[in-house]
Design a protein that fits this description.
Elements (H helix, E strand, L loop, with lengths): L3 H8 L17 E4 L2 E7 L2 E2 L2 E2 L11 H22 L7 E12 L7 H16 L6 E7 L8 E9 L3
Helix pairs in contact: 2-3
């Protein structure tokens, strides 16, 4: 389907990937009423991690933002898949949760998560503004620096 959101993604030069099936016992997205929950997404493309390491060691804020942006692109791909390709059903971004793999001295977690938050506003405008949490963690799966999950409000079919 081509709609306003797909056009906006094209204007931004963003192509949403086809997402692989999960490798563990969970679902990538779940709809409950008019909320759509997207499981944590890591900065991977074509099945390969694009970033590995910690913020404050291997990466600074700008690289962390790029990793968070890639997580957000993967979130949008999961959203599209869960909505059978109809991104126009997205009403608003309710919340993003960001997990930042960082050295203990690193304190710029919110700035890193801006990479995901900014993308949501770029794509959805005011409907992309959301509540969020940016949490520093000691480690993440496969040593990725960022993982982001999301909650969306969606319209009924």
């Amino acid at each position: 389907m081509t709609g306003k959101i797909e056009q906006r993604l094209a204007e931004l030069g963003i192509e949403l990937p086809d997402m692989p099936a999960p490798l563990a016992n969970y679902v990538p997205a779940r709809i409950v009423g008019q909320l759509l929950f997207v499981s944590g997404q890591v900065p991977a493309r074509d099945g390969k991690d694009q970033f590995t390491g910690k913020l404050g060691a291997e990466y600074g804020v700008q690289e962390g933002q790029a990793a968070a942006r890639l997580c957000a692109i993967n979130i949008l791909a999961q959203l599209r898949q869960a909505l059978d390709g109809d991104l126009e059903r997205m009403v608003s971004v309710v919340r993003l949760g960001g997990f930042i793999n960082a050295v203990p001295e690193f304190t710029e977690h919110p700035k890193v998560l801006n990479g995901a938050s900014d993308l949501m506003v770029e794509v959805f405008g005011e409907a992309g503004r959301h509540a969020r949490a940016a949490v520093g963690v000691y480690s993440l799966p496969r040593n990725v620096p960022v993982e982001v999950d999301a909650i969306f409000e969606i319209s009924a079919r």
